[in-house]
Amino acid sequence: MITVTAISALMQCIIPRDVLNSASELIGAGEEIEQSQVVKYLIYGGYTLVDMVENIGEYSLRGGILDFWCPYNTHPVRIEFFGDEIDSMRLFDYQSQCSIKMIEDTIILPVSEVLLNQENINRLKKRLDTAKSISYKERTKLDKALGLSKMTPGMQHYLGYLYTKTDTLFDYLPDNSIVVLDEYTYLKQRSDEWEAQISAEYEQTKDYGFPPPKDNYLTFNQIQNKLQAHQVIQLDLLKSQHEGQYITRLEVEAQTTTAMQAVLRGRQGQGGYLGRLAKEIKTWQKAGEGVWFICHNRGQSERLQEILAEYELNAKIADAADNLLLNQESTEIKQPLILEGGLSGGFYFPQLKLKVITET
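Request: output the structure for the sequence above.
Response:
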């Protein structure tokens, strides 16, 4: 799974993962469940009742037929009930209303981060009592909505009071995920701007009694701390020699190895192509050049390592933790490296004194 997000979204606290899981319901064809119970799941999850479902987060009722559109599905779901049993389930096209395919089960996910059960409502009221920053007018309006278990615009700003704790996107990521930071300097700048905007808006909306920013948002320093549990790749534009300008296009000198490989294949001699290549590699090593071999999988890498050893070449199979460029900058005889990957052809990189060889 690939998740693309903005720094402002990464800073935001969201519904706790365990709360989201407990509010998600799996239902299936043939299951005995009252239609009213499924409707309760939808209402609790923040779905809106409409005449005809056209958007995610909507549901409609027509006798024993219940339509709803969950974020989990690319199309809305139509459930037909026979008494208190789900008779059939299908995905349908919301424009033509035609069936797309029958399904055995589906999941109902909340479409709102504000889940108003009595426990959460009581917790929110108690924290507002303690904070004592909400105006009488806004508290009256809020209490009226909470008394009806009804979500109102802006209620998501009370997230820090609604749950015992909130999570962030980091809590939803698997451990040791790969996180790519695109233009780190810009992200820091944008984060500072967002923090200033949040603080200003908080001061302007104190009458609403919203939790302080620290309860609803992460700072950039907190994000940096959370990143330590993951693999981070940082991408930045290269600075040019001109002040304040960045390089958007970088040209490097590289040569294909096609001609070199053709010459080696055409030469006569003992040891075949690999024997001649091994001899050439030793010449490159004496000249301070490095060699990388690209193999499709681990098995091919290990087999190539064994073959090169027969020609007295001690090649190393590189892993993700190796600093490959550091290996290239060394002044010592460079050990051939074997990497797993895919390239359409090899090349020579004069600036690094590096030859990359593929199977083709």
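The radius of gyration is 30 Å.
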